[in-house]
Amino acid sequence: MKNRSNVSFIVLGVVSLLFLFSLTFFSQSNTSIPVTASSDDSQVEHTDLVEDESSNSSNGDNGSKENNVTNHVDNSINANDGEVDNSLENHINSSSSNVENNVTNAINSTQSSVNNTIQNHIDAESADVDSAIDNNIQTNNNDVTNSIGNDINVSVDVNVTNQINNHITNTTKDGDGPNNGDNGNGEENGQVENGEDSDNGDNGTGENGNGNEETPETVWGVDSASITTEDMLACVRNNFGDPEVWGRYLGTNEGASYGLTAEEVNLLHSENIQILVIYNHFNDGTGYEHGQDHANAALEMARDFGIPEGVALFANVEPIYPIDSAFIQGWHDVVSESEYSSGIYGIFDPSEELYVAFEAAVDSDPSILDEMYVWTAAPNEGITTEENAPAYNPSYPDGALIGGWQYGLDAETCNIDTNIFDGNVLDVLW
Q1: Phi, psi of 350 (to 5 degrees)
Q2: SS3 for 178-216, per residue?
Q3: What is the pLDDT of residues 236-257, one digit of tens each?
Q4: How far apart are CA 243 and CA 237, in angstroms?
Q5: Which Gene3D superfamilies does this entry report, sorted A to Z (predicted)?
Q6: N or C terminus: which one in the chain shows less Cβ crowding within 10 Å?
Q7: Is the bond into 390 cis (omega within 30 degrees of 0)?
Q8: CA dihedral defined by 143, 213, 211, 270, rounded to 10 degrees?
Q9: Does one domain contain both 142 and 255?
């Protein structure tokens, strides 16, 4: 009996131990579950962070913040026959772009064919673009084509400089030319074409002048303080005539004139109408420094708008403005030393202050007579149609470089003035 009791106690002890062991095991298994869950949550958060980092990296690849591009092409050729074809094309999308293109050709040959092309396609907040082509050619027979094109979409600020220099020496001696005249002098066989297409925000073409057509003695045209639209152009053609020149103002002058727009440039050029550029942002034409200041302002506006080099900028002198020779001299000195040509508009009647001031400026600097284009509003014959325009009879200082005659003021229809422009001025229009 005692042995059975001992056995019972032993069995009971073993069962108790097994129960305690099982209880401990299941308790530990339950406490491990939250640890595993916590680990899974941490992994999810990390995955989200990685996705965010990947997205930022992708955005950074859409375009650089700043882009600096420098292209230099330098050719030195000494041969019997030189053929050179240089082409630079930049496609840039960035916040800020600085682009410098330089093409230099030094050629000494019997004959040469040179083609230089620079194309800039830029989409940026701001851009500085400097393109230059420099040809130094000594040859008997040469054919040179230069082209600079800018397709620039800039939202804040753009500075564009295009420069083409041709230094060409024809080495044919007297009597050696292929097409000699009866006098035995050799004929120079040189063809040079320079083209600049500055399309800054679609500001039309960058060409100026009337191309290779024979220059007419005079052409009929208009000027206006209003923006040129298709309706405006139709109004002029239906009521007055078909203008070959259209005078427009550089920048808006509140209460006086609306500034030339890119859309106008495209419209007028598509209709083969040249643009005469007028600057009228002053009402006091006295003082040398004052003339310089306004000339510099006009240059900045012309460059910002993409007006090509060689185009004349006309200072607008109204009859109520005080004017002296110093202002004219200051304007001319600055503009004539730039890439643009110097011009002046006003009533050039001998009784007017402007006429007297101009002649005084010429006395101090005779070059003004040969270099400064004069657009006169004297005499006033009244508005007419192109067909009924008066005989060309402008009033201007003797020997001056006459550019045109505004013979009729303030048409009641279409808001225009009517003009006859001299063939002299066609090469300095846009």
Answers
A1: -55, -20
A2: CCCCCCCCCCCEEEEEEEEEEEECCCCCCCCCCCCCCCC
A3: 999 999 999 999 999 999 999 9
A4: 8
A5: Glycosidases
A6: N
A7: no
A8: -140
A9: no
Are residues 366 and 228 located together in one domain of the fold? yes
Q: Are residues 250 and 139 in the same domain?
A: no
Could you give the CA distance from residue 375 to residue 406 in angstroms, rounded to a whole number?
A: 7
Domain count for the chain: 2
3-state secondary structure at position 396:
coil
Write b or e for each residue in 371-381: b if 16 or more Cβ atoms lie within 10 A of its Cβ, otherwise e.
Answer: ebbbbbbbeeb
Domain assignment present for residue 33? The answer is no
In one-letter notation, the amino acid at residue 334 is: V
Strands 245-249 and 218-223: parallel
Query: Is 248:275 a contact under the CB 8 Å cutoff?
Result: yes
Q: What is the pLDDT of residues 158-209, one digit of tens each?
A: 556 666 666 565 544 333 333 333 333 333 334 444 444 444 444 544 555 5
- Asked if residue 249 lies in contact with residue 278, where contact means CB atoms within 8 angstroms, the answer is yes
pTM: 0.54
- Which range is least confidently modeled, 144-148, 182-186, 319-323? 182-186
Q: Is the pLDDT of residue 11 over 50?
A: no
What's the CA gap between 279 and 317, in Å, rounded?
Answer: 9
